[in-house]
Amino acid sequence: MTEFKKIRRLPLAVQTTYADLVTRLQEDAVLELGGTTVLRERSGRKYWYSVQRLADRTVERYLGPDSEEMRTSVEQAEKVKEELRHREKQRGVLSRMCREGGLPRIDAQTGKVLLALSKAGIFRLRGVIVGTNAFRCYSGLLGVEVSEAHAATEDIDIAAFHSVSIALDDRLDPALAEALKLIGPFVARPGLYRQPTARRDRESGVLVELLTPNKGPDRDEPLEPPALGAYAFPLRFLDYLIHAPAPAAALYRSGILINVPQPARFAVHKLIVATRRSFSADSKATKDIEQSAALIRVLAEDRPDELEDALVEARARGPSWQKAVDRGVRRLPRDARTALASSVGLHFLE
């Protein structure tokens, strides 16, 4: 008989507090830019921008794609512009309550980096946190305790679509390298190519790396997403991971609004990358499977449709994707594999 690992739910008060914090961060992200909000159409799609007059020039900053949620945020922001300082204090209370409620907190240096990059606009410009720092947010987003989410990490991986970056017509301000230098002695990490894609803090060891989906099987040279103004390393399967990301709150000070992959896509992506690790990276592959299993146990019970959609989409991308997903599923702990098969019901999981 398979012994299922029990899902431990967070208290409803903690779940509600986290959801409230994310909502307030979304509203205040519009407030903090100031200016006038306008709707622009670019390449057949509509996007919201904040328009500001600075001396003799007008600056437009991208807010997000047009949606009911974004329109609600814009309307709400117009009503509370005068309350920003008070709202920041309120967010600080909510953030503290989340941390005290057991949600994973981030260390001070990681928090400083995320805050600096947030102020420069990296998440507003569709940057997505991936890796363990994204995984740490799923406890709050899913309303459960995830013991694996408390693992420490010194890496901050941020991914962005090159094509989306071109369409936004906006840039980080200040540039990424300048923003990092304001908080520590960040230096470029040497790599195979002339253009560095990662920078490390010589004092804390924190590594910040930019990633972007590759444009083909033979494309592995760094690309420069225009909105980020820095080079990013291209990775296979990344386009699947960061499609339609979810807003989340990084628990540092009064909270930082970030973007993370949808939890179902994160779980499936981890199954794929675990099978592609070299033998020397076996510990990372084990971590991939542990994180995937932790999410699958919850998603199979709470969001089976999302999990099934993520699996079906990944396997529909071709034979190599199917093989990687199926191999990853076979590496799951028995209880997670059983939960996946019984919930999703796809024949290849049996």
How are the elements arranged and paired?
Layout: H1 12-33, E1 36-42, E2 45-54, E3 57-65, H2 68-79, H3 84-100, H4 108-120, E4 128-130, H5 132-135, H6 138-142, E5 155-159, H7 162-168, H8 176-181, E6 186-188, E7 198-201, E8 207-213, E9 233-235, H9 238-241, E10 246-250, E11 256-260, H10 263-274, H11 282-302, H12 304-315, H13 319-330, H14 334-344
Parallel strand pairs: 5-8, 8-9
Antiparallel strand pairs: 1-2, 2-3, 4-5, 6-7, 7-8, 10-11
Task: Explain the overall architecture.
Strands 4, 5, 6, 7, 8 and 9 form a six-stranded mixed beta sheet that branches. A three-stranded antiparallel beta sheet has the order 1-2-3, covered by helices on one side. It has a two-stranded antiparallel ribbon with strand order 10-11. The protein is 45% helix and 17% strand. The mean pLDDT is 87. It has 14 helices and eleven strands. With 350 residues, it is of the alpha+beta class.
